[in-house]
Structures are given as C-alpha cells and as structure tokens.
Amino acid sequence: MSRQAKPSSHGETYWHPLVNLNPPAWACAWGEDPWGVFATFLVGDVEQEMRWIPAGTFWMGSPPGEAGRDANEDRHLVTLTKGFWMAQTPCTQDLWLEVMGQNPSRFVSGRRPVETVSWEDCQGFLERLSERCPGLEPRLPTEAQWEHACRAGVDSATWPGDLKILGVRDAPLLDPIAWYGGNSGEGFDLEKGWDSSSWPEKQYSHKKTGTRLVALKEPNPWGLLDILGNVYEWCSDWKGPYPAEHVEDPKGPDSGSLRVFRGGSWNSNAQDVRAACRDGHGPGVRGSYLGFRLVRGPGSAAQER
Fold first, then answer.
1. Three-state SS for 131?
2. To the nearest whole percent, how much of the chain has pLDDT over 90?
3. Contacts for 57-62 with beta carbons within 8 Å, 24 or more apart?
4. Is the pTM of this model over 0.70?
5. pLDDT 10s digits, 218-254
6. CB 240 within 8 A of CB 255
C-alpha cells in the first residue's frame, strides 16, 4: 500500500495514517502539520481547510475566579466521544458568495468572515453546500464541540492563559490571538468602517473598525484561526442552563427561544473574548458581528475509515 501523501494547500506533503491511508472522500488535499491533521475541500475556486479535533474530556464553563466570568458559565465535566473536522477559519465571504450567489456582509471583502447572517440563514447555506460537496455533511458545531475546539486542551480563559483586563476593551493577552474591540481598528483597511472613536478604554486608540481578514492572528494549539474574536460564531444549540453532572456529547436543550453564539467579535469587550463566554439571539437575528464556522458531521474518524 502506498504511503505517499497528497500535496497540501500549504505546498508541502505529509503522511499520517488517519488521512493518507483513509483520506476523507470530500477532500482535495490532506496531511499533517505542526498543529495536527488537516483536510481541504473545494467549492468552485474556493478552498476551505478543515482541522481534525480529537475526542476528549474537558471542563466546560469557567471557575468562579475567572476575570470577566458570567453567571451562566457553570463549570461541568464534558466528554466528547468522537473526534470531528472543524473549519480552520470562520466561513469567509468568498465561500458564502460561491455557495449562495450573494454577499450579505457589511464589511465587504472576500477573505473577511461573512457576517450579518442569522442562524436560519446558516441552515440554508449548509443545505446548499451539502449539495455542492457530497459527503461533507456540513453543519454548525454544538456548543460543547465549539468550546472543546477553542480550548484545545487548555483550562484557562484562553489558550495563552487567563486574561488580565486593564479596561473595558483592553486585555493585552488577546492582541496576538484575536480581533476584539480593543485592537480591531488598529490599521483598519476599509474605507467604510464602524465609528469607534467614542469607545472607552481601548487597547489602541482607533477611530473606525470592523471585521478583519481571516488568518492574521496566531492559531490555537489545534491550528484553528480566529476562533476567538473577529466574528461571533453560531452554534447548533438552543441556549439553556448547563447541567451539573458529567455529560457525554451534549447537544443543548430540546427547545428554546435563543440560539447560542460564541467567541467574541471585532466590537466585543475584553471579558467576552474567552473560551467559556456564551450568548444567544433568536434564530432570525442578523448582525455585523455574527458569523459561523463549519464542522463536518455526523461522521467520525472511525466512520470515515
């Protein structure tokens, strides 16, 4: 059996038993790099890299002493019994436009995250993408999958550590890893930005801001980019209180009025750009701070073999 890897989108080749001996049927390239296993799918001329997120047990939520903590973040033990593929970046405007034929975003630029999309809009996108890319079975992550992927094995508020919040929009630890209200206007490159001149306690003294190109900040330990900041990311779950007990593969309440979104955005206060921070909107709400990130489902590595 050949062990020669296909070329990756990085222009290099890698071998890994998961992806080379049993490559995903939907992938045009796959391999391994310092952050783990990746696979890329192609829609039209637009590539989207996916990262393999391993199964595992983690503490979901935040401890009582975490800076910026909210009361809806009760810490509890969660086990995800299957690994999954997650997009390396939020869905870009290029990918949305290729699939949907129009771009709803306020901050128009192909390599920026798509935004001003509701949870319901995302369902339409996922349905059309599934038709364009057979076998991918795209969906939104569960809230537990999102937090597990964001943490990447780390228990602190962010993967570099806990935040020291110096002001409303001033937490220097975020600067290398996330676009948030404190830094998103630094060097902002679109003519029409959001007026941020009156925002208090910013890390940088910017006057206009908005989303930024994806993949400009440092990745987390599993190779995910912009998982904190830039745009909030819709999850599949209805929003509800966490269970107190250890749970496996949670999918949230069976019903509700709000869908969860995670991760903070270009206009967020520092306290909202943490792995445990959670919020929700009605499924029809749109905003220039709301985007999403794909996962593949419901397949697992075992099923792909």
1. helix
2. 89
3. 58/147, 58/148, 58/151, 58/153, 58/155, 59/155, 60/144, 60/147, 60/148, 60/242, 60/276, 61/242, 61/276, 62/157, 62/274, 62/276
4. yes
5. 999 999 999 999 999 999 999 999 999 999 999 999 9
6. no
Domain boundaries, the chain: 43-304
Q: Residue 89's closest CA among 226, 262, 253? A: 226
Identify whether the C-beta of residue 155 lies closer than 8 Å to the C-beta of residue 59.
yes
* Contact residues for 273 (Cβ-Cβ < 8 A; gap 6+): 158, 163, 171, 174, 178, 180, 228, 229, 263, 264
Alpha carbons 249 and 42: distance in angstroms, whole number: 29
CATH architecture label of 43-304: Alpha-Beta Complex (3.90)
- % pLDDT > 70, the chain: 90
Cis amide bond preceding 298, omega within 30: yes
Strand segments, DSSP code E, in 75-166 are: 76-80, 84-87, 138-139
Specify the pLDDT at position 18. Answer: 53
- The stretch 185-197 carries a mean pLDDT of 97
Which long-range CB contacts under 8 A does 18-24 form with residues at least 24 apart? 18/52, 18/301, 19/52, 22/304, 22/305, 24/85, 24/135, 24/296, 24/304
How is residue 268 written in tokens? 């967020």
Helix 93-100 to helix 119-132 angle (10° resolution) is 70
